[in-house]
Specification:
The chain is of the alpha+beta class. The protein has 2 helices and 5 strands; from the N terminus they run H-E-E-E-H-E-E. The longest helix has 20 residues.
Length: 117
């Protein structure tokens, strides 16, 4: 009986600590104006603007040629699907930690067709 209770408590502690850390996501990130988006291989996330987003923007700046260029990032954050007053994406993420920022491997990825100059 004591062993079962002990294992149950350990299991709850492990689950709680994993939930606190948040999800690790890798994808293409863009910030422009007052909006940010993270595009992974399968999901697009609206990014909740906080101090970490501004820090990420400063780290991403050297890799961008245009303000709308994307950069490859690896971040840790809290994912939710709750309604937000300004973010209309179904999936939202609040960045809690920046793990890596780098340029996209293919320079043509950020090329844009300009209709007028």
């Amino acid at each position: 009986m004591k062993r079962t209770v002990f294992l149950l408590i350990i299991g709850l502690l492990v689950f709680a600590s994993c939930k606190k850390e948040g999800a690790i996501l890798k994808g293409d990130y863009v910030f422009h104006g007052d909006a940010a988006v993270l595009q992974t291989d399968s999901i697009i996330y609206g990014v909740i603007i906080n101090k970490q987003v501004h820090k990420l923007n400063k780290q991403a700046e050297p890799f961008k040629k245009q303000p709308t260029d994307m950069v490859k990032v690896e971040i840790r954050g809290t994912v939710n699907n709750e309604k937000h007053e300004t973010i209309l994406w179904e999936n939202k993420i609040e960045i809690t930690e920046i793990l890596d920022v780098e340029a996209l491997p293919n320079e043509d990825y950020n090329n844009v067709i300009k209709l007028s100059q």
